[in-house]
Amino acid sequence: MGRRILFITTDQQRYDTLGANGGTLSRTPVLDRLANEGIRYERCQPTSVVCMPSRASMLTGQYPSTHGAWMNGVALPLDAPSVAESLHDLGYATALIGKAHFEPFMDPFGRFAENALANLGVPTVEAPWFDGRRGVHRGFDFLEFATHGVMGPLHYAKWIQRTHPEALPGFYSVVDGDFNVNAAGGGDTGAPQVKLNDVPREWYHTDWVADRTIAWLDAQRDDQDWFCWMSFPDPHHPWDPPASERHRVDWREVPLPANYPERAADREALLDQKARHWRLWYDGRVVSNYEAPKKWVPATMTADQVREVNAMNAIEVELIDEAIGRVLAHVAAKGWGDDLDVVFTSDHGELQGDFGLLFKGPYHVDALMRLPLIWRPAPSTSPVASVVHAPVSLVSLAATFLAVAGATAPTWVEGAALPLSDEDAAARGFDSTVTEWDSALFGVEVHVRSILTSNYLYSEYLPGTMHDGSEGELYDLDADPLQRINLFNDPERAAHRAELSQRLHEHAVRPGERAAPGLLVAPV
């Protein structure tokens, strides 16, 4: 018997939504307890601030520029390495239940024509796995998929269509009639991507993911080692949790975020310090990635809409915490708790009103880049609770899982196993992380590389549609934790900028094969 691994992810969850991280809107006692018993990471960064590249990095232990899923809509190659495959080969039972998103969910713009697929080698069959295989897929011998919507071929959608069709109208429609991300408003304030959903809580995808995880656990032998990735679609937009839970957080009592100035002029002054695409998006002149509604102008968002979005988000976070508690209680009841490692994180954050914006995109600031990360090692190992302040990356997860299993990470893994303490981090050289961004959509290309150290966040914009390679952002995290003052052109910071630029260059030329951004094959 080895140590079992429960890997829990959410989608688009900020660092500050957990009580253990200072959050006050959501009650998260289950995750707070795990944080107090194990290791809480203060500065966990993603390899990308959008779903598919970040999730592919979790699976492969590689940066997007290596694994090749460089933006949403570009599928992870079927021959990409997988930590689940390594664990499967070690004798682990492996499962992924909930949101995977290594392949596009749908093809609204018709880019998946059969002949194009044949030329690109892109899978054409979506059931039960996207490549049509009935056996092990990407190292998982069991897969059940869910996402935010209830239409389409995924397992949760099919389940609710078949068993509870009366609940379908309650869910927000993710796309509009033109297959763009829906800009329609709802709730009490008309906030975009908000809807009052009459679905009973037990039919909602958060509880479904927990229920299906419990069912899979019940099918495992007592002597079986297992790796289970339990992946919740929330608190990603649309914000349409069960209406029965609306009482948990009254949006009217929600304070505005510290990074949301109420005066438009103050918001615009902050945006004007940043690279040009920030203000262009705010004014509704540029949409640079598919998940921001094309027909919505952020400048029109009201303070009350920000409050309602944050309230709905907080409700979804609470439901996830309770669902995790149910699964952990079930593991304990089976007598497996002593040898269980639990890792919890998210793929990227959400702006949630910061700088007057919602959703995500090529905006490398804490709202999108600072993630919750908790590792509670198995109690049988007598773990020492700690808080790691050094920067760490989701690219380290694959090596961490293999270390838990007693295996050495293969050469294709680019991130070392997570440190257990600040002392361990210092001894092993954890002093910075890199986040990449590449996108090409609606005729707009944006390419960003950012490095975060304990003191600075530095971004360079590579040549693209709106940037000529001379723009960037530099923030002093000690003096300016909210990243409001861009010091990129400050002559007094020239030395810091040069050092950080050199480190980004070293990342770009690191050993190993690099995958160049290629044909845009799908937008979602």
Keywords:
eight-stranded mixed sheet, Alkaline Phosphatase, subunit A, 14 helices, alpha/beta, 524 residues, four-stranded antiparallel sheet, 15% strand, single chain
User: Uncertain regions: pLDDT < 50 for 5+ in a row?
Assistant: 107-127, 518-524
Helix residue percentage? 25-40%
Summing up helix and strand content along with how strands pair, one would put the structural category as alpha/beta
CATH class: Alpha Beta
Number of domains: 1
Shape: globular
Q: Quick check: average pLDDT?
A: 92
CATH homologous superfamily assignment: Alkaline Phosphatase, subunit A
Description:
With 524 residues, this protein is an alpha/beta fold. The chain has one domain (4-262, 304-422): Alkaline Phosphatase, subunit A, CATH 3.40.720.10. The protein is 27% helix and 15% strand. The protein has 14 helices and 16 strands. Strands 5-4-8-1-9-10-2-11 form an eight-stranded mixed sheet, sandwiched between helices. The two termini are 40 Å apart. The model is unreliable at 107-127 and 518-524 (pLDDT under 50).
